Amino acid sequence: MLKGSCLCGAVTIAVAGDLEHDPQACHCRQCQKQTSSFYAGVNVRKSALTVRGEAHVRWFRSSVEVERGFCAVCGSTLFWRPDLPGYAWISIAMGLFDESTGRRMTKHEYVAERGDYYPDLSRLPDSGD
Questions:
Q1: What are the helix and strand counts (H, E) for the chain?
Q2: Using an 8 Å Cβ cutoff, are 78 and 7 in contact?
Q3: Distance between CA atoms of residues 129 and 127, nearest Å
Q4: What is the DSSP letter of 46?
Q5: DSSP code, position 31
Q6: In this structure, what DSSP letter does residue 126 have?
Q7: Longest pairwise C-alpha distance within the chain
Q8: Which of 93, 120, 110, 112 is CA-nearest to residue 28?
């Protein structure tokens, strides 16, 4: 079980079992506006996710088919979810996890839209930290 929380702890999450997917990064303009950089998240089955403090989760519809969840108390980015009938997945912001997930980012999306203040991260060397 993987556990995590927002910055203030008002919203906590638990994901049952291991992650089925690797995290990915989205550099689109909407993710830049939401996070001030890029969104790093991992898709998990909604049925594997438990959220406590749901009264503090607010949803913003950023497009016709997508909602973005954040903590109403501290503003932490929490979720990204398509509003599609029967869609079984939700993306959880990687920064929420309290411990290492053991997974590495394997995909970037909308790299051409990335902010001009950082290079293509896939070309940066690993510092080993």
A1: 1, 10
A2: no
A3: 6
A4: G
A5: H
A6: P
A7: 42
A8: 110
| Residue 15 · residue 101 · CB < 8 Å | no
Q: Which amino acid is at 7?
A: L
Query: 64 in helix, strand or coil?
Result: coil
The label of the residue with tokens 């927002």 reads 6
Place of tokens 């290492």: 100
Alpha-carbon span 106 to 127, nearest angstrom = 17
The number of CA neighbours under 13 Å toward the Cβ of 84 is 10
Residues 71-106: tens digit of each pLDDT: 999 999 999 999 898 999 999 999 999 999 999 888
Q: What is the pTM of this model?
A: 0.88
For residue 24, give both structure tokens.
Answer: 């990915």
Separation of alpha carbons 33 and 119, rounded Å: 18
- Tens of pLDDT, residues 12-62: 999 999 899 999 999 889 999 999 899 999 999 999 999 999 999 999 999
3-state secondary structure of 101: coil
